[in-house]
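Q&A log
Question type: sequence-to-structure
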Amino acid sequence: MDIILSQEDIEWIKTQYPKLSVDIFNKDISGDISFIRNYNGYEISDSYSIRILLESKDGSILPKVIATSDKIRDIVKKYNIELDDLHINRDGSFCLVIQEKEEELFENGFSIQEFFRKSLEPFLFQMSYYDREGKFPWGEYAHGKLGYIELYAENGILLDKLLKFFEKKEIVSLVLKNRQSYCLCGSGKKMRKCHPMIYKGVMKMKDSQWI
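Response status: OK
Response body:
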C-alpha cells in the first residue's frame, strides 16, 4: 500500500531535513538525514545516507528504509558482527520496530512526521551509539523471529501466533533447549545469560499445554 504524503508533510521534510529529496513520482525519499538527539545525557549529532520507499508491505504500516552508504556496514566490520546484530534485514532494510508494536508506537495512526521522530531517528541514534560504545543504548527485542519469542515471553502475543513464524523442525529444536543451551543469536554464550527473554519464551513454550 502506497504511503501518501500531504503538501504539509513535504514542506516539513524540506524544512527539517533539507538534504533529503522527496520524489512523489518514484514514491521515495532519498539523501542525507542529519539529527541531534540526546538519551540520558548522551548527545549524538550524526548523518546517514538513506532511501525511504513510500509503501508498506506484509502487514506493516511502516515504509522500508535502506542505507545508501557503507556507514552501517563499517560498524559491522569494526566490531566483527553481522548485519542482523544491528537489526538490518537480509535485503538491507532497517528492522525499525517489531510489527506487533507498531500500532502501540503509532497509536493515533501512521504519519510520516511521527515516523521520523519516533522510529527512524531513534534507530539511527542507536546505530551511532553502537559505533561509539559497542552496544545499544537501551533494551530492544532480538532481531527477526527471535524478537517474537521475547514478545511471547512478555505475553505480547499468543503461542499459536508465535508458532506461525517458525517451521516445524525449528519448533522441535526450540523445545529441546535447556539451561545449558547456547543462545539462538549465535553469540556462543549460554542463552539464559545472553538473551534471558528468549530463554524465558522457550521455557514458556515447553511448559505450555501445546507441548
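Response note: The mean pLDDT is 88.
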